[in-house]
Amino acid sequence: MLRYTLKRALSLGLSLIVASLVIFFVIEVVPGDPASFMLGLNAQPDTIAALRAELGLDVPKFERYLTWVGGMLQGDFGLSYTYRTPVTEMIGDRIWVSLPLALYALTLSTLIAFPAGIYAAARRGKAGDMAVMGATQFGIAVPNFWFAMMLVLIFAINLRWFSAGGFVGWDKGFGAAMHSLTLPAIALALPQSAILARVMRSALLDVLGEDFMRTARAKGLSRRQALLRHGLRNAMIPVLTIIGMQFSFLLAGAIIIEQVFFLPGLGRLIFQSISARDLIVVESVVMLLVFLVILVTFLVDLAYAAIDPRLRART
Amino acid sequence: MMQNTSRLALLASTALLALPLQAQAEQSDITVALQLEPPHLDPTSAAAGAIDSVLYANVFEGLTRFASDGAVIPGLSKSWDISEDGLTYTFMLNEGVTFHDGSTMDAEDVKFSLDRARGEDSANAQKALFAGITDVTVLDPLTVQVTLEAPNGSFLFNMAWGDAVIVAPESVANIKTAPIGTGAFKFENWVQGDQITLSRNEAYWGTPAALTDVTFKFISDPTAAFAAMMAEDIDAFVGFPTPEALPQFEADPRFQVIIGSSEGETILSTNNMMPPLDDRRVRKAIAHAIDRSAIIDGAMFGLGTPIGTHFAPHNPDYVDLTGLSQYDPELSKKLLAEAGFADGFTTTLKLPPPSYARRGGEIIAAQLRAVGIETEISNLEWAQWLEQVFRGKDYGLTIVSHTEPFDIGIYARPDYYFQYNNPQFQQIMDTLNRATLPAERKALLKVAQTIIAEDYVNGYLFQLAFHTVAKAGVEGLWENAPTQATDLTAVRWSD
Predict the structure, then answer these.
(1) Which residues belong to the signal peptide in this entry (chain B) (predicted)?
(2) Which of A33, A284, B123, B343 could tie B45 with a disulfide, CB 3.0–4.6 Å?
(3) How confident is the model over A93-128, as pLDDT tens digits?
């Protein structure tokens, strides 16, 4: 287990180094200068040059890369070009929207998908299975921003149960904060739960054909008991993989949902920073997301090993 | 008798008591949404209009200021004297003005602010406004004298810009995150990416604001803007992004729609140095190929005033020159043939993100195709546009709304991105800058507007409309946008 963990950790470290190089140099070649963007149409060339110097943009690229990476190792992402505040602080503020939202959506998605997937697998080929499969097909086909708009139309504009967007802040209390994240979380969760339910169903069906399932039935368990007691655990590997990917997606991919609900999260920060060419913010947030994605993959790998002892031995 | 009097007094006093009580029960806070969030909070070191949209007139004030009709009126300076030769301006400051941190605003702060803006290492995005100042002298704590290199008829106008507001040396270091001004509202808090809150300045030197608390929310997505207004999460949306949604608000008694004019001359900017666009006949042909009303109806849902030159129609000095570029595709083809392009030609049309450009661009491309001019459309982000078009001058045509007020002077800069070089026009602008008499200025401005219209420097399309949606009870919002500002000092809730 230790060797397995170390090997995974090494691959995590290498991925991060490669990612930092790619992110920095790809983003730096994007055309557009943050200083001219900030100063607009009437600025004089010497003013722009002065601002470039103030922002440290006149330093060679590779030197800037080393400063950036060196800072990150100490938890310092540098200073935002446009906001002139530490990127670490900006990320710190926004992650408290994005992370809870992703967790909230993932929880909802799992709560919907597990029962639906198990139910469909248990009633394979029957009307209940058809209904679940039909609904999930719909859920996958419809983009989440459309769901978002429908939710706003029904629950914010017509019923007035929720506000149409915005985040009240954690200082208004846990309940109020979660309330303002509810519609976005549902919009994010529905398409994800559709995918997850289908994966759950097919993973369970795969397991159902295994020898140990027949043994379980033979020793007297009902179909349902066998499914829950022996099938579920064995079907968890593909399901966990998908959950890991979904968490990464929900954290990094909520850009559109954050726009639709004007939530001050990481997605919106990236969106704004790209258009303002606040490259250091873009680089740092993307790097952080890459780190989280790699970290989640790492944890999922470890979880595999916990669920399936054979994986520990294989390495 | 005595008893009666006292009873009356009691009644009167309870009635008086009741008044403020009732006033308290009324709403005194407002949530205003804007599309763009400021990058930081220093109006004196960035071009971002979003900074002025939040802070101008509310938190920061200058020597002079813009009124809602665009007129320049006294601000921190209650009056001024201009010397005979037009070179010396003596500003008399209002008494008892304090910054939000309690310190006094006096002539030293004015000197500091102007010197900072015009200084060598100044990061002011409109440094040109201060270029003519040679000296700023403090005569006494309430009098400051500004000396100019040459007479400048628009000096008081320049001092009204958000870039010329008065800041204090003590607080300027943190101005980007904690702005301290003299205005009727104080800055309270900024949740980046979400909102900025202001509160009433109880020690304000002028007429105090009616509102006690102001929240600015930033909603960039048009659909979200619509939903937030419809759900009444916000009280007003200043600069509402989608004109197509306005009729729905107009029909709803809960809301009011305010449609005014902005300072945005929306033009088909033309690269005057790039062949064949360097030929006046070709540019004239383009002008006659364009049907403004089709663009206003098609791209702006009917909102926008046609213009024939680079000047705002609501300005008293505006001259209607749309007749010089009437829609006439036959004339356009004839002009092209004269210039040697009977079979037309191909050029680029580079479009920045706003819908006036993206939607207007498609319509213009179709209109130009009808006379034989093919355009290669490319959609650019703002940063790309600045790099390629504005700085690189690598374009044939582009569509931009020039939102700076009174910016006809850009035509006197040959290095400006249209690359228009006309010494006669430059001469007129030079004379205008020195002219201080209104009648003389009016005459010069008429000539200036006519020259650029007759040279067909750019395709002049329309003045961008400015639309605001608000709850029915909100009073006192600006109808027009003579500068980028959301002046809330006179806003109140009606009974």
Answers:
(1) 1-25
(2) B123
(3) 888 999 999 999 999 999 999 999 989 988 888 898
Instruction: Name the domain boundary from A29, A51, A73.
Output: A73
Distance of CA A16 to the CA centre of its chain: 17
Q: Is residue A207 in some structural domain?
A: yes
Distance in Å, alpha carbon of A164 to nearest chain B alpha carbon: 5
d(CA A49, CA A36): 9
Residue B14 has pLDDT above 80, yes or no: no
Among A residues 91-120, those touching chain B with beta carbons less than 8 Å apart:
93-94
Report the residue of chain B nearest A273, measured CA to CA.
B39
Together in a domain, A37 and A117 = no
Is there a single domain that holds both residue A191 and residue A134? yes
Q: Complex ipTM, two decimals? A: 0.78
Query: Could you tell me the residue range of the domain that residue A125 belongs to?
Result: 87-275
Could you tell me which chain A residue has the CA closest to the CA of B40? Answer: A83
Average confidence (pLDDT) over A234-251: 84
All domains in chain B, ordered by first residue: 29-254+472-495 (3.40.190.10), 264-464 (3.10.105.10)
Say how many domains are in chain A: 2
Q: At what angle do helices A266-275 and A232-252 cross, to 10 degrees?
A: 40
Question: In chain A, whose CA is at the least distance from the CA of B402?
Answer: A41
Chain B positions touching A42 (Cβ under 8 A) are 47, 125-126, 128, 404, 407, 410
Chain A, residues 18-47, CB within 8 A of chain B, namely 30-34, 36-44, 47
Q: Measured between alpha carbons, how far is A32 from B386 in angstroms, rounded to an integer?
A: 7
Cα angle for residues B113, B177, A273 (degrees, 5° grid): 115
For A164, the closest of B39, B125, B231 (CB atoms) is B231
pLDDT of B418-475, one tens digit each? Answer: 999 999 999 999 999 888 788 999 999 999 999 999 999 999 999 999 999 999 999 9
CB contacts, 8 Å: B177 with chain A? 84-85
Are residues B158 and B36 in contact, defined by beta-carbon separation less than 8 angstroms?
no
For residue A119, tell me if it sits in a domain: yes
The DSSP letter of residue A230 is I
Asked if A32's CB is within 8 angstroms of B384's CB, the reply is yes
Query: Contacts of residue A31 in chain B, CB cutoff 8 Å?
Result: 383-384, 387-388
**Angle (CA) A225 A229 A235, round 5°:** 115
What string of DSSP letters covers B59-72? TB--SEEE-TTS-E
